[in-house]
Design a protein that fits this description.
This protein has about 475 residues and is α/β, with parallel strands linked by helices. Helices cover about 35% and strands about 35% of the residues. It is globular and about 75 Å long.
Length: about 475
């Protein structure tokens, strides 16, 4: 059971790890606000003693010097007796996941917004990355995650004084964030609520139906939502970008520029005759159904640009196009799989010989050759002697590019059929993996990264297994 559970989770999380590596490599460290603990050092004490749990209700109250793989109904990580410590990564598939702390609420002291002040006695810490698929995830006050957080859940609660030192990727129905994030936050949610103590050290990338912001973003925000409300305690240190919205009600402060594309815009500087903070220190460039009345003092510079509102084309706006593309992709993959299994069965067994290290090697080979081959082909084409050879090389390159995604999907599907006990034929595995990858590709930013990684890795698989039998 342990090996099957580990393999299943590894297949679906490997590319999330690759996403984070690529994001960090291209994400500048300029202009990052340090979070609470200035003496923070990345945890590296990850040992090999992993824990596998599959009970209905599991409480982890001690120190785990390794990774935790959990497939349970309810998972509680509890800091009782100085435990609740995971020195590796956490992989959890559960109905409810609770990363807990011992908190007391003051009867006399109040915090900045008038709520009872909290005192944290003990809290959980996780040294690595956290991967959660659940109905509900709660991270209580004071808990710390020293890596990245990846979540797919119906409801997510990230509490006050909790800290995630890395990037956060969340797909959720309802997300409440009141914690500190040391990296960027990438969110797709129906309801997004960023409360007063919510703090993002880098950027916010948000796609939502309803978004409420009342926290602090130290760099830029990129938001697409039907209804957006920012409260007067909201602060965006750099640029505030709304790519598309039906309704935007803005209070708070943008330290640099605001670029807004919304059908209806309200700049709210008063509430029941009470003055509210409503200020844009840089330029305001906005598109709306009609020009708006800008209250005095909201834009400090005399730089306001207006244009007519044009709805942006949402990635989910045309479901039929998505379905048609999915069907076309499946037919292509099925055809290639049929041809390989019929005429080159040995090649099929070779491309399914995959491990984590192999995938990294395939990624490197594919990345290098995808850049190198066009350069060589162009140089040959420009020379009088090798022009025909250059055209042939480009033709082969285009042909290989067409089969990279199908080969990648076939490799994963064949491996899954061999290693997992789930009774499905390869065609059904291909269907599940293709649909999963297609849905992930719709996610802003992550979808683009996924497509690139599949292209690089698939190209590497094709080339390496055409040349040699083994890596």
């Amino acid at each position: 059971m342990k090996s099957k559970l580990k393999l299943l989770i590894t297949i679906f999380t490997l590319f999330l790890l690759l996403f984070s590596s690529l994001c960090f490599a291209t994400d500048s460290n300029d202009g990052i606000m340090p979070i609470s603990e200035v003496d923070f050092e990345q945890k590296t004490n990850i040992k090999d003693s992993d824990l596998y749990v599959d009970n209905e209700i599991t409480d982890i109250k001690n120190t785990i010097n390794g990774n935790v793989f959990a497939s349970v109904d309810t998972l509680n990580i509890d800091p009782i007796d100085n435990g609740g410590i995971i020195e590796g990564n956490l992989f959890a598939a559960a109905k409810n996941v609770n990363i807990k702390s011992n908190v007391t609420y003051s009867d006399t002291e109040k915090d900045d917004i008038g709520n009872p002040a909290i005192s944290i006695d003990k809290a959980c810490t996780i040294s690595g990355n956290v991967f959660v698929s659940a109905n509900k995830l709660v991270i209580e006050p004071g808990c710390k995650i020293y890596g990245d957080l990846y979540v797919c859940a119906n409801e997510v609660e990230l509490s006050q004084s909790a800290i995630i030192y890395g990037n956060v990727f969340i797909a959720s129905n309802k997300l409440t964030i009141n914690c500190e994030i040391g990296g960027s936050l990438y969110v797709t949610a129906r309801t997004f609520d960023m409360q007063y103590f919510g703090f993002i050290s880098r950027d916010l990338h948000l796609s939502a139906e309803t978004a409420t912001l009342n926290g602090y973003i130290y760099r830029n925000s990129f938001i697409e939502a039907k209804n957006i409300t920012t409260n007067d305690k909201f602060i965006n240190q750099k640029d505030f970008n709304v790519t598309d919205a039906n309704n935007l009600t803005f209070s708070g402060e943008v330290k640099e520029n605001a670029n807004i594309n919304a059908k209806n815009i309200t700049l709210k500087n008063k509430n029941n005759d009470k003055d509210l903070i409503c200020k844009i220190n840089g330029n305001l460039s906005y598109s709306s159904k009609q020009e708006i009345q800008i209250p005095e003092g909201v834009v400090s510079k005399d730089a306001v640009t207006y244009s007519k509102y044009v709805p942006s084309e949402s990635s989910l706006s045309n479901i039929w196009d998505f379905v048609l593309e999915l069907i076309t992709t499946l037919v292509c993959i099925y055809l290639i799989y049929f041809l390989i299994s019929k005429f080159a069965p040995n090649y099929l067994s070779k491309i399914s010989d995959i491990s984590g290290m192999n995938l990294l090697k395939y990624l490197g080979i594919g990345f290098g050759l995808l850049i190198l081959i066009p350069i060589v082909a162009i140089l040959l084409f420009l020379s009088h002697v090798g022009s025909i050879l250059g055209i042939i090389l480009l033709f082969i390159y285009i042909l290989l590019m067409i089969v990279t995604k199908p080969i990648f999907v076939i490799s994963i599907a064949t491996l899954a059929k061999e290693k997992l006990s789930i009774k499905m034929n390869t065609y059904l595995y291909i269907l599940v993996i293709t649909v999963l990858l297609s849905l992930i590709s719709l996610t802003p930013y992550i979808g683009t990264i996924l497509s690139l990684l599949i292209s690089f890795t698939g190209f590497g698989i094709v080339i390496k297994n055409l040349i040699t039998r083994k890596i």
